[in-house]
Amino acid sequence: MTQLDPARRTQVFQALRAQHIETPSWAYGNSGTRFKVFAQAGIPRTPYEKIDDAATVHQLTGVAPSVAIHIPWDQVDDYAALARYATDRGIRIGAINPNLFQEDDYRLGSLCHPDPSVRRKATDHLLECIEIGQLTGSDVLSVWVPDGTNYAGQDSITGRQDRLHDALREAYDRMPASMRLLLEYKFFEPHFYSMDVPDWGTSFAHCLRLGEQAQVLVDTGHHAPGTNIEFIVATLLREGKLGGFHFNSRNYADDDLMVGAADPFQLFRILNEIVAADALAAEANVAFMLDQCHNLEPKIPAMIRSVLNVQEATAKALLVDRDALRTAQRDGDVLGAHAVLMDAFNTDVRPLLAELRADAGLDPDPIAAYHRSGYQQRIEAERVGGSAMGWGA
Amino acid sequence: MTQLDPARRTQVFQALRAQHIETPSWAYGNSGTRFKVFAQAGIPRTPYEKIDDAATVHQLTGVAPSVAIHIPWDQVDDYAALARYATDRGIRIGAINPNLFQEDDYRLGSLCHPDPSVRRKATDHLLECIEIGQLTGSDVLSVWVPDGTNYAGQDSITGRQDRLHDALREAYDRMPASMRLLLEYKFFEPHFYSMDVPDWGTSFAHCLRLGEQAQVLVDTGHHAPGTNIEFIVATLLREGKLGGFHFNSRNYADDDLMVGAADPFQLFRILNEIVAADALAAEANVAFMLDQCHNLEPKIPAMIRSVLNVQEATAKALLVDRDALRTAQRDGDVLGAHAVLMDAFNTDVRPLLAELRADAGLDPDPIAAYHRSGYQQRIEAERVGGSAMGWGA
Amino acid sequence: MTQLDPARRTQVFQALRAQHIETPSWAYGNSGTRFKVFAQAGIPRTPYEKIDDAATVHQLTGVAPSVAIHIPWDQVDDYAALARYATDRGIRIGAINPNLFQEDDYRLGSLCHPDPSVRRKATDHLLECIEIGQLTGSDVLSVWVPDGTNYAGQDSITGRQDRLHDALREAYDRMPASMRLLLEYKFFEPHFYSMDVPDWGTSFAHCLRLGEQAQVLVDTGHHAPGTNIEFIVATLLREGKLGGFHFNSRNYADDDLMVGAADPFQLFRILNEIVAADALAAEANVAFMLDQCHNLEPKIPAMIRSVLNVQEATAKALLVDRDALRTAQRDGDVLGAHAVLMDAFNTDVRPLLAELRADAGLDPDPIAAYHRSGYQQRIEAERVGGSAMGWGA
Amino acid sequence: MTQLDPARRTQVFQALRAQHIETPSWAYGNSGTRFKVFAQAGIPRTPYEKIDDAATVHQLTGVAPSVAIHIPWDQVDDYAALARYATDRGIRIGAINPNLFQEDDYRLGSLCHPDPSVRRKATDHLLECIEIGQLTGSDVLSVWVPDGTNYAGQDSITGRQDRLHDALREAYDRMPASMRLLLEYKFFEPHFYSMDVPDWGTSFAHCLRLGEQAQVLVDTGHHAPGTNIEFIVATLLREGKLGGFHFNSRNYADDDLMVGAADPFQLFRILNEIVAADALAAEANVAFMLDQCHNLEPKIPAMIRSVLNVQEATAKALLVDRDALRTAQRDGDVLGAHAVLMDAFNTDVRPLLAELRADAGLDPDPIAAYHRSGYQQRIEAERVGGSAMGWGA
Known about the structure:
Four copies of one chain form a homotetramer. Chain A is an alpha/beta fold. Chain A has a single domain, classed as TIM Barrel. Helices cover 46% and strands 12% of the residues of chain A.
C-alpha cells in the first residue's frame, strides 16, 4: 500500500494546494430535464446570490476560488461591481460562457445559422462576452456551440463549418492577448442528427486555424459511449491544445451528474494523465471547471461533493508511483504497470485530505461543516420573493 | 424487381387499408429540449384544437383515425363531449396516457416513490385515467413510468420494483375487461443512473404478473445503442405480449425524431416482423402509435410525413416474397434470403401508395395537399391569444 | 470512514470466508482476438494441468475452490478420474460448459440451426455434458448459445426461438434434480445482426418456460453500452431467476478483461446488490464464476488478481452501512444515501483482506506469494513438448 | 419522384462510369471471429488466385478495377510479375496494406511497442511495403496501426504517440512523391482499453505533422456507437485530408459485414457528402476500398453484392436535386430539405444501373450472371489441395 514519506507528503500537499476548481454559477440555480424542472428552496435570485453560494463552497473546500458566469443568465449592469463583489467574498469571476441556445432566433442554429442576420446576432453576443470578460478580469471565453441539425439534408454540413469558422475568427481576433477561447465539443443534444462541433477532432481543427489562444474544452459528459476520455486528454496535452475541462459525470448521455459519481475510476484516470503531464499547476493553463445540473439533490452540498471528488481523484493521481510505473511500462510488465496505477486508486485518500484541510485551518469534513453552518437554513429563509434563477431564467 | 400481380395487389391494398396509425395529441403542441422550446405559430390552445389537427392528418392520409391523449395536458370537463367532438371530425380518442412526471411531488418518483403518499397520488392518477378511458371509449391505458434514480445508492432497486408492482396491480384490477394496460420501458431519461422499467424484460416480467390484459409497449427510441428492436418485437409477439408501439426515430438517445427519418431500414425490419407474424390486422391488437417531438419542423406536415413513413415501411414489408424467403432460409442460403428482404426494401412503393390513396378518393400526395389546403395559414391566423399548448402546458 | 467493531468484523469475515469464486479452465490456456493468439510459456497441455493451475489459484487465495470445464476442450476418457484429480488437489469440478461454436456444422447455428440434423448434434452435445456433469459431480450446466445471424432476413427470428426452446426442453428434461441449467445471454458476437439469446429478457422467458431448474446466467461483458447490470441482477434476484455470473470486464464489447479492471465501481455495485439481497451465501445458489481471456498478461497472476478483485468488491459491499442506507433512502436523502454507498467503496479494504488471509494461514499478498513460489518458472520449464491448450485446442 | 432528363442522365452515367471501387484480396480468403473460422470451398490458395477472383468481380460489375493486397499474406517472390498477372486479367494492384498484428513480437504493439527493436521491425515492414508498392505501381500505403493496451497504466499513452510519430515519419519520408500514406483509425479491437489511433482526430493530427501525402482513412466500421460518419467525411474533405474509405457495415463493433447491409441509409448519406463535394472523380484522390469479412456467406457473390451496394448508394446520391436542396437549406425549410434527400434515397435505382451495365456490355444483373457463369463450380473443383488462404495464412 502507498505510504508517504515526509518529502513526498510535502510535494503532494503542495500540488493539492495549488489546484483550483472553478464552480459554475448556473449550477446554483434550478435545473432539470425536458420533462420537469424541480424547484428547490433557497435558490439564488440574482447573480450576486450565486456568488455568495460559490464563495461558500470555496470557504469550505479551500480549492474553488473562482466562479464561471453565463451570459445573459448572469447579466448585470455593472460587471466590474460584480467582480468586486466576488473579490470581497474571497473568490473571483472565472470563465465567461456565452449562451447561444435560448433565443427564439436560434431554432436552426446560432453561429452556423443559414441566415446571416442570426449569425451576426450570435457573433455580437460573443463580442459582448469578450467585453464582459475584460470588465470582470476573466481570461477564458468558454464557447459551447449548441448548433446542429435534426434531419439528414436539413442543412449543409460543410456550409455550417464555414460559417462557424468565420464567426469564431471574428471573435478570436477581438480577444485581448490575455484571453483564451476554449471551444467545447458535444456528441449530441440539443440536436439529434448532427452537431456542428461534435468531437474533439472538430474543435481541434478549428482551434488550429484560429491560433494559439484557441484551445479545446473537454466536457467529460460530451462523448460517444465507450470513448476513452483520458486518451483525448493526453493527446490534447501533447498537442498543446488542452484548454480545460467541464467536469461532470454520465452513464448515458450528457447526464450532468456530479463529477466522479458515475465512474470514479474514469475521473482518476483523467487526473492521472494531467499529473503525468505535469499539467496540474497554474502555469499549465488547464482550467478545471465544473459543469453540472443538480436536478434532484441540493445544490450547494452537491457542489462541495463534486469539488471533493475532483480533489480525491487528484490526490490519488499524485500518489501514483511514477518511477515504478515507468519501469513496469518499459519492461512490458502488463500486470505490474496496471497494479501501480490501481494501488494508488485503491488507496483511501480521505485521511490525507482531512489533514490537508486541517493544515489550512479548514474543517476536515466540508460537507458536515456545511450542514452545521446554518447556511442552507439561512438562504431558504431569506431567499423568498423574487424569482429563483434557473436555466432560461 | 418486385412486380405485383392483381391478386397480390388486392391483398396488399387490403392490408394497407386496414392499418391504423394513431397520432399523439401532444405532438401538435410545442416541444423542445431542456435547452429551449421553440414556439411555433398556429399551435393548438385546447385539446379540441389538437383534435382538429389530428383529424386533418387523418383526412389527408386516410390511415390515422385515432388520437392518443395525455392527462392532464388534455384535461377537459366533459370527456364524453371530447370523444364526440373527435367522432364528429372523423376520428376517435385512442390511448389514454397518464402523466407521472410533471408534479413537484414526483422529484424522487411517482409509483415508485419512497413516500407512500406520493405513490397514492400517482396511483390515483392511473385510476382517474382508467375512468377517463371509459368515458372516451378508449381501450388502451398507456403507462410510461418515468421513475428512476440519478445516483447509485439513492434508493433500493428492489424496493422500488415492489412498490411499482403494487401500484400497477391496483390499476390493473380496476380496468374493465375491454381495456389493456400497455407498460412502456425506457433505457434512460429523465433519470440517469437507474430507470425503474429500463428494458423490455422488466416490462415483460411485470406484465406476466399482472395478467393477460397487461402487455409491453415498445417505444422505438427507448433502447440501448445497437439494440435489435425487431428481435424484441418478434419475441414479444411469440410470447403474446406485444401491446403496441410508440413510433419515432433516434440517432443517440430518446431523440423523438420523425419515425423512419433516422433509419428507414430499421423501421422496415420492424414492420417486416409484424407482417411475418400476421400482426398488422386489428385482431392482433397491436397498437401502432406515434410518439414524437417536432422541435424544429412544423407539426402537422411532420406528422403526415411520419404517418407516410410508417405506411411506406409497411408496404415494403407486405411486398416481401414470403415463400422465397422461407425457402432461402430453410436452405441456409444467407445471401439469397437477405436479398429477398432487400428486394422489397429497395422497391419504390410511393407509386403504389399514390394509387391506394387515389382509389380511396384521397390526394396521392398528402403533404402537397396539406400545403395547398390553406389549413396552416388558417390556424396561424386563428390561433392567436390564449396560450399555445406544449409540454407542461 | 467506516470502522468495524469486533462483532461486525466477525460477520464480515464469515461472509468473506463463505464466498466461492470459480475459475474457468479455459482461461489458463492461450487466447486472443480474431487477429492473433499470442502464445505464452508454461501453458497447460492437458485438462489435468489446467486443474493444477486452478488449484494453485485456490491455494493462494483460499476462495476459488472449483474450476469450470469446457467440453470438448476438457474432454478426457475418465471424468470421474478428472474429478478425483481435482479433489486430490483441494478443488472440485464446477460448471460444465458445452461448446456450441467450434464445429464446422455450426456455421448457421447449433441449437437454432435451420437443419434438424445439426440441431440433433448440438442437442446431443448438451445431453453428453449433462452426463459428464453427473460423472464429475457438477450441479451446473452453463449454456451459452452462440447462435445468431449476420444479415436481416437470413433466418426467421421466431423460427429460431422455437427450435431453441425444443432443444433446451429436451436437455432440461434430462437433467437430474440436483442440476441447474444456467442460460447465458450475449448482446452480440459471434453474430452481428441478431443473437438468439441477446438479452436477459430472452433468457428469462426461456427459463420461465423450462422450469425451476433453469435460471439466467449474467456475463458482465455481454450487455449493450450503458446497461445498468446491477439493476438486472437485482431484478433477477427478485424473480428468483439469478443463476450466477460469468465475471469479467469490458470497455467496448465482450472484451473479457480481468473483472474489476475496467470499472471497479460497477463491480462493487453488482456485489452490493448481491449482499443487499443476502445472496452471497451458498444457500442462495448464485454461482460466482470468472470467464476471461488473458490475451496479453500471464494467466495465473491475472486469475489471482481477478479473484482478489471480486473479493475486494465483496468486502466493500459488506461494509455498506445498511441501516444508514435504508434510513437515507426512506427519507429521500439523495446525497446522504449515495454517500453511504460511496463511503464503503472509498474504503481501502486491502488491510482487512490481508488479515482475513493471515487468519486462514494464507499469505496476505497472494500475487507476491505466487511470484515467490517458483510455480511459474516450474511450469515454464516442465510444460514443453505437447501442444499448449487454447481456444479451439 | 425523381425523373431524369437526358442531359442529367448522361451526367449521372458518366459519374457512375468513373467510379472505382477497390476490392481487398483478403476478403476472398477464409475469415471468422475469435470463436471460429468457417472454411469454404473454392478459396484461393495463392495471391494469384485471389487476383483471379477480384478480376471476376470486376468483369461482372465493371467498377472494381483494382485489388488491395496485404503483406505478408500476399507475399510473392516477384511483385512486378504479380502486377502483370493482374493487368493481364484486366485489373491492377491497388493499396498496399502492411500487417502489423500477426507477429508474436507484436503482443504489446508494433510501431508503438515499448521495445525499440520491435518498433524497428515494424517500421522496416512499412519500408518493405513502400518498396512493394513501387514494384506493383501502387500509389497508396494503407496503414492500420492495431496497437493499443488492454489495461489502464499498461503503457504511457503519450509515449506511445511519440513512438508512433517517429515510425510514421520514417516511412513517410521514404515514400515516393506519387504515393500517399493513408492512416486508418479504429475505436477498439484488438485492444480493449486504449487504441493508439482510436479516432479521426488522432489520425488527422498525425497526418498534419507528416505532411501533404498523409491523409486519413475512414473505415466505416471503426467508430463509437452513434457516430455521424458523414460528418467526419465532410469535415475531412473540407480540410483536404480525406484519403479514402474502407467500406463495410456494422451493427455493433467492427462487424465487417457487407457494406450497406446494416444501414443502407447511412451509406447513402456518406456518398451524398462525397457527391456534394464533387469528390467522386479520380482527381479528388479519394480511394473507395472495401474491407470486409464474409464469415458466413460465399465470398465472391458477397463481394459483388457489396460493390453493387456502393454503386446503388452512389447513384442515389447523384440523383439528389442539389439546387432544390440548396434552396430549401437556405430558406430554413427543414422538412423540405430533408424531403429532397429522401426523395433520392427512396428512388429505386436498380433499373437505371441495369441500363448502365447494358450500355457497357455487361449483364444487367451481375449476381445472377455470376451464378450462371460456372465460376464458383470451377474454383470449387480446381482449388483442392494446397492450403486455403485466410487471416493469418
